Amino acid sequence: MKCETMEQALQKLQEYQQTMSAYNHAIGVLYLDATTAAPSDSWEGRGKTMEILSKITYKLQTSPDVAEMLEVLEKNADALTAVQKRQAEVIRKGYDQTFRIPAEEYVAYNVLCNDAGAVWEKAKNENDFASFAPYLEKIVRFNRKFAGYYNPQMAPYDALLNEYEEGMNTQTLDAFFAQLRSILVPLIAKVQTAEQIDDGFLYRHYPVEVQRKFSDYLMEVMGMDRKHCGIAETEHPFTTNFNNKDVRITTHYHEDNLVSSMFSVIHEGGHALYELGADEKYNYTVLSGGVSMGIHESQSRFYENIIGRSEAFVHAIFPKVKELFPKQMADVDETMFYRAINKAEPSLIRTEADELTYALHVMVRYEIEKQLIGGTLEVKDVPAEWARLYKEYLGVDVPDDARGCLQDSHWSGGMMGYFPSYALGSAYGPQMLSKMEEDLGDIWADVAKGDLSRVTLWLKEKIHTHASFIKPGELFKQVCGEFDAKFYTDYLTEKYTKLYHL
Ligand code: ZN
Question: Which of 104, 127, 155 is the last residue of a domain?
């Protein structure tokens, strides 16, 4: 379609976004199927379909029509609504970036990531880093190259960071992590010398079918509408969204661990509430979905830690825990449960790390990614560097790669520069809580009754509803003012000082 008049450009804008969101929907469903229901050796055909779909979306994104449309819209920027202006801006960014990536590289990368996912899963299960290493090498090479396409003016790792958190850079993150390290490392040391918490009862036998019921209950307490949010089981829990009426979360059940799935469900539930809370005017547009990984993690970790690991929340759900697991919980009371789920101990697995040591797990990945992309670390040396950093930051020995550098799926999916968002998201939460309490007064009496409606409504009005309309840095500032990591370190210091009677 020719795009010469503003009327044509606006029509094209709508059509283009609807078409792209339909392809993204299809690709998303394929990915969801690959990780949930598809049999293990079915990747070949799916790989072919993915290849064709990514060729089509690449063509759509880089078509001269889009360039023409953007030019007309940009020339008439004053006539655009704020939403249209932001849509054009997001499409322009994607266009310029994708245009710089040669088509064959773009397609090859998508195919590589699809294959790497299956290889990683097998490598993790068999503790075989060597089989995954050639894929990781290719992924690193692609990312280094893509960084130059994304933003040739930036250092490569900064360009990758910006893909997940617009405006972020290593300078800011180095300072942020240094601040965390200076407060958290001594605090963790103090906790380790205090009397230890017994959490053994959390690792008794918890049948999967009862844990599934527990997940249903938790989703109900969180106010998640099951007509619009599904749950499935995968190796690594995640959330995916197609629009604000179709969101899916996944979890992983371990029979000898009650809390692993419990907090995955609450965490992914937080991501899902963000997506479900978006204003529907953003559906089928480039502004649908959460605005950045950092803001997304601020929501998931708000529910997981600030709410889910609070005394008030435990008070609300403990009767149900007792009812579902009467034998396992026979000798456990509410206080014991609250203390156990907050036990802080340097450990190996990021997704199961406690709230206090969590950011240090992220720091390890940040340092390794920075070096891989910067070219100062080779893939074959990742396991050794991983072990060295875990020893330095957390004081733990890494026994094997399955519990070391193979534990997360991110790199196999091509995501480099993503991990820091987890720590940023964690740090955003306490500042949001402070603002929420200023606006709403005491929220904890509600939480203790299992009523999260005021909490969720506040987050919905301040954050969720805007989807990707407002840039992450601006959104945070609009809600909380200047970001200050001190809210986070103060929150952790206060919580753990009380918990461990320091
Ligand atoms: Zn998350």
Answer: 155
Same domain, 103 and 220: no
Q: Which residues pair with 240 in a beta bridge?
A: 248
Pairing of strands 246-251, 239-243: antiparallel
Residues serving a catalytic function are 268
Distance 495 CA to ligand 1 centre (A): 22
Q: Distance from the CA of 300 to the center of ligand 1, in angstroms?
A: 6
Domain's final residue, options 155, 180, 213: 155
CA 261–ligand 1 middle distance (angstroms): 13
Cα 279 to middle of ligand 1, angstroms: 21
Q: Which domain covers residue 54, as residue numbers?
A: 6-155
Name the token pair of 20: 């792209």
In this structure, what CATH number is given to the domain that contains residue 192?
1.10.1370.30
pLDDT tens, position by position, 284-338: 999 999 999 999 999 999 999 999 999 999 999 999 999 999 999 999 999 999 9
Cα 294 from chain centroid?
8
Q: What confidence tens digit (pLDDT) does each residue in 34-52 have?
A: 999 999 899 899 989 998 9
DSSP 341-371: HT-----S-GGG--TTTHHHHHHHHHHHHHH
The structure tokens listed for 21 are: 């969101």
User: Is there a single domain that holds both residue 146 and residue 244?
Assistant: no
Q: Give a yes or no: residue 240 inside a domain.
A: yes
